[in-house]
Amino acid sequence: MSARRFAVRNFPRPHLVRRDVCPRLEAICLKAMCRDSKARYASALLLADDLSRWMRDDEVSAAPDSRFQRLARFARRPLGSTVATFVSLLTVVIAVSVILRVRQLRGL
């Protein structure tokens, strides 16, 4: 397809062609094909970076994630790293609570 035909043709959104297209992949495609050159990726390297992030199930620049989406992605990670993070966070919370309680009791 020539560049001239691309410039005047309206392409359907990918999910309208195929319903199972990932919304984040669709956002990458739409950003890559945007008519406004300022809204497109500045380089092929940035496009490749977003595609790599999508394949690793990381956040992509074309579709920033909500907090819920980040949490859901974190929960999909391997169980070992999720458990290790949770245990570390729980240890820090308990340690801070104990330290604050000891300081409170010493002050009395």
Description:
It is built from six helices and no strands. It has 108 residues and is mainly α. It has two domains: 1-66, no CATH class; 77-108. The longest helix is centred in the C-terminal third of the chain and has 29 residues, at 79-107. The model has no long low-confidence stretch (mean pLDDT 85).
Sheet with most strands: none
What oligomeric state best describes the polypeptide chains here? single chain
* Number of self-contained structural domains: 2
Secondary structure: helix percent: 55-70%
The rough form would be described as elongated
Q: Give, in order, the helices and strands.
A: HHHHHH
Number of helices: 6
Which blocks of ≥5 consecutive residues have pLDDT under 50?
none
Instruction: Tell me the number of strands.
Output: 0
What is the beta-strand fraction? under 5%
Rounded mean pLDDT score: 85
| Terminal Cα span | 80 Å
- The Cα radius of gyration reads 23 Å
- Helix/strand-derived category reads mainly alpha
